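Notes, Module 5: Reading structure tokens.

Key idea: the token line is not a picture. It is a compressed description, and you learn to read it the same way you learned to read a sequence, by spotting repeated patterns. We will look at two proteins. The first is printed below with its tokens.
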Amino acid sequence: MNILLLEDDPTLSETIQYLLLKENHCVDAAYSIEEAEILSFNNSYDLYLLDINLPDGNGIELLSSLRFAEDPTPTIFITALTDISSMIKGFELGAIDYIKKPFDPIELLIRIQAKFQKNIMSYEHITYDPQSRIIRVNGQIVDLANVQSKIFEKLLSRCGEIVTKEELYECLDHISDTALRVALTKIKQKLGIEIKNIRGRGYLLEKL
């Protein structure tokens, strides 16, 4: 996962970064609201880890501005606050969890794994998050059209099995052999994978 960590305590930030990197996550660290805003504007993330009280602002206000900009990235707040109204506001903005300081950083890893890791699918150099439909090739986000994304998800979820044309037709807006062939060609080109045409039976994404 690509994670943006906003935490102004250098020691805690470095500890969290170390543990996340050990779990093969990619982490960008920000130590201020301004840094976090710049990073979120220039990059795409699978998860935000946001402190609430910072010298130059408030993590909840940052999430509010991100949501206003139609950024749906899942968010976990790291906070020493026990204020119920702040927690309610955070959840209203779409926060998926809170973790209260002081905490064992291992607990944070457990929470992330429980909420995300089990959903991530992978194939060769590709990772796919069914919830957000984010596809990464060698860590870089690749944009597939809605139809292409649906077809890839169906093939990936049935990896090693032949998926019939009729089943893939369900992913199309307008059903035709040509539309299906075009979508499959674009998927192969964008993701750099082989999708086999099993004549008379359907299509196969071979099991690794």
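Here is the second protein, with the sequence above and the tokens below, as before.
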Amino acid sequence: MDVEMSRTMSYYDLRDALGQPGCPVCRLTARDAERYLDGLRWEHVNDPGVQVREAQGFCRDHAWQLDRAGASLGVAILMRDALGSVLKAMDGARFQGRPAMSLRRAQQTLDAGQAAAAATDLAAWLVAKGECPACVHVREMETGYLSTLGEQLLGEEGLLQAYRASDGPCLPHFRLAPAYLREEPAFKALVAAQTAIWRRLLDQLAEHIRKNDYRFHDEAWGDERDAWLRALGALSGGSHT
């Protein structure tokens, strides 16, 4: 099969994202999450499906990404459906009292970190039956990008050159990347490239620290100026722009 024909859109997305600051996978999945939520806001609000209902809405981060100008109607419809499912679950909750016991026994068994039986029962009724649908979508896209990286790292017009010149994936995504490599040469190339990227960042952090010393305060800043922000992204994820 022709190499160009075998490449998917993920290849071109990754190649472009590697030319931008921060983790390319974080950047792309953040974009994909926004597109997914846009689709819900504008196109699928009247048919939110079981995913949103069973997840009882969205995780905190993705829920607040729904807050956009002009989106109130769509969000209201989605939340009405999700909140209705929560109220329906609450209909089955019943109080479960503790069995009678002496004061001494109660003091011995009381655990401030243990919920009362009534609260435990209610909490069980309110456990979501599914995961945030936006998180599920992001994870599926993430898998696709990491798979593409593993398949297209080496070879003619592979992604290795762009990878070497980039900030590389963040640590959480780099942990996952080796699982998508099929050959040892790709593994060695990936580790070598990422090691060089992080050593470069480590040097820039050292220079940032040095230039904060009053003795070198007058020296001009270079790439090390925002090294601390890039280090946050490198270890924790997210795109620094």
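Summary for the second protein:
- Residues 3-98+114-236 form one domain.
- The longest helix spans residues 184-211.
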